[in-house]
Amino acid sequence: MRIWILCLALLCPPWLAANPLPDTIDRVRGAVVAIGSYKKTASPPANFRGTGFAVADGNLVVTNAHVLPSSLDHEHFEYLAVFSGQGEKARVRRATVVAEDPLHDLVVLRVTGPPLPAFRLGKDSSAREGQEIAFTGYPLGMVLGLHAVTHRGIISSITPIAIPQNNARQLTARLIKAMRHPYKVLQLDATAYPGNSGSPVYDQATGELLGVINSVLIKGSKESALSTPTGITYAIPLKFLRPLLAEAKKK
Q1: How far is 190 from 240, CA to CA, in rounded Å?
Q2: What string of DSSP letters covers 194-208?
Q3: H-helix or E-strand containing 84?
Q4: Average pLDDT, whole number, for the chain?
Q5: pLDDT tier at 15, thresholds 50, 70, 90
Q6: Does one domain contain both 83 and 175?
Q7: Which of 1, 34, 78, 237 could form a disulfide with 73 if both were Cys (CB 3.0 to 4.6 A apart)?
């Protein structure tokens, strides 16, 4: 009987194998939030800027630093906001910055309200080329309502954030900075959109966090010599988030 089951498993085509991703999405969806600002007197009151996700105790939220608004209208009570939940059940929470890493474009926020479901962190060495990943976020913002969207793919490469340029005219301030402080990023074969900035990249089977989507700024360094943008997506590896979380937990 065991031999027959083994033979059946070996003959079973990949498309008949169990797909863990739907269950994984169900587990992680509650940890994914929208990032923006909120001003009650504005129309609309919510201003969407990107995606984030909860970690640690559920009251810490990670996103890209460039997602945060450059200024807030405090005179009219505008505040940094995190939007949790889905659709009509969405809830707005106040947020404050507790730790920031400009070099890797990461920031950790502390949010008010009950703890959110939190992502489990993978190991720093668990991201591998060819690994099946997914990321969940808000590529269209709130245009279609607060409903998270998931994209899937693989880690195509673990590659330097910047490569030397043959022409000095291609050297921008951002590129020079990236070359002075080189580090490797995850290159993905799934397409992210502007609203996906700050989305969690996770293993399809386990749901463990592997990195943070950041195509907007990385492309400015990695693909600076290209005249037209590509469909390649990049993410900041998890290891750069750990010291930031350690700092945030102390505050």
Answers
A1: 22
A2: GGGTTPEEEETTT--
A3: strand 79-84
A4: 84
A5: very low
A6: no
A7: 78
174 has pLDDT over 90: no
DSSP-assigned beta bridge partners for residue 152: 134
Lowest mean pLDDT among 14-18, 65-69, 97-101, 104-108: 14-18
The pLDDT of residue 16: 47
| Spatial distance between the Cα atoms of 159 and 237, rounded to a whole number of angstroms | 11
Domain that holds residue 70: 28-118
**Residue 14: burial class (beta carbons within 10 Å; 0-12, 13-18, 19+):** exposed
Better-scored residue on pLDDT, 138 or 182: 138
Task: Please tell me the total count of domains within the chain.
Answer: 2
Burial 32-66 (b: 16+ CB within 10 A, else e): bbbbbbbbeeeeeebbbbbbbbbbbebbbbbbbbb
Higher pLDDT, 224 or 200: 200
113 & 150 share domain: no
Which positions ≥6 away from 131 have C-beta within 8 Å?
Answer: 154, 155, 203, 210
Residue type present at position 171? L
Residue with tokens 């939007």: 83
Q: What CATH number has the domain bearing residue 205?
A: 2.40.10.10
Last residue in a domain, options 56, 86, 118 = 118
